[in-house]
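Figure 6 in text form: structure in, sequence out.
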């Protein structure tokens, strides 16, 4: 099956947003549910 790719996925701001999301998850994983 062919993987779908979008033009915005190559943008640096998109990549930085993904990195930011990962960091937020790491920082908040110890928070109470």
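Output sequence:
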């Amino acid at each position: 099956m062919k993987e779908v790719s979008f033009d915005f996925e190559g943008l640096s701001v998109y990549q930085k947003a993904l990195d930011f999301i990962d960091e937020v998850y790491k920082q908040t994983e110890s928070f109470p549910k």
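Caption detail: The two ends are 37 Å apart (CA to CA).
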